[in-house]
Specification:
With 202 residues, the protein is an all-alpha fold. The chain folds into 2 domains: 150 residues, 3-Layer(aba) Sandwich (Glutaredoxin); 48 residues. Helix content is 63%, strand content 3%. It has a two-stranded antiparallel sheet with strand order 1-2. The longest helix is centred in the C-terminal third of the chain and has 32 residues. The chain is globular, with a radius of gyration of 20 Å.
């Protein structure tokens, strides 16, 4: 919920990239979330989410079941992102699942979210089941695995640095600032070199 305003303040362009965690977990031999596999870690995670949401004045309700199958939600996100309302949709899905405790596995829940955003739910859900959308989601999940992503939210900079978790958001933005500074210096050095060569050949 914080990333858009922080990215805008930093002058950084953000791209939302939906992917599926299930195949990533399966590749590591996990049949469910590590927060379920390791109860002590899971208890701490849920308590930490309560604290974080309270500090940010955000509602929080632990979803049941957890994790939920987000396949339809992710496919619909790709439709939304293609039509330039994807960020609002993604936020609404997160609010529904973690703020209201709703089950986003159900097409009815996704349909209600779409309608609340003023979208034609039936049309979006039909597009979400298209071959192109299904292929795109598989490709983005494959790309997430290639990048070493193992959880969500994850932030990957243009330079390929991976940061995981809400608490690493500021570090990710700082890294992007550093990469941008290095790129600016590189462009300036190239410009100076071209100018030097031009003067040399005059």
């Amino acid at each position: 919920m914080r990333i858009a305003s922080l990215a805008e303040t930093s002058g950084i362009t953000m791209r939302w990239r939906p992917f599926m965690l299930g195949p990533i977990f399966k590749a590591q031999g996990w049949a469910t979330s590590p927060f379920n596999l390791y109860p002590a870690k899971g208890r701490n995670m849920w308590r930490d989410l309560e604290r974080v949401c309270a500090a940010l004045d955000l509602p929080f309700k632990r979803p049941d079941p957890f994790p939920q199958n987000s396949l339809l939600a992710a496919r619909a996100a790709l439709v939304a992102l293609a039509d330039n309302w994807g960020e609002s949709y993604c936020r609404a899905v997160y609010c529904a699942e973690f703020g209201e405790g709703r089950n986003i596995e159900k097409s009815e829940a996704i349909g209600e979210i779409l309608s609340s955003l003023g979208q034609n739910a039936d049309a979006v859900l039909e597009r979400a089941q298209s071959t192109d959308i299904k292929s795109q989601l598989r490709e983005q999940t494959d790309e997430a695995q290639r990048l070493g992503i193992f959880g969500s939210p994850s932030f990957v900079t243009a330079g390929g640095e991976l940061f995981w978790g809400n608490d690493r958001l500021e570090a990710a933005l700082d890294r992007l600032d550093d990469e941008r500074d290095v790129g600016d210096r590189g462009c300036q050095e190239q410009s100076l070199e071209r100018e030097r060569q031009r003067l040399t050949h005059q």
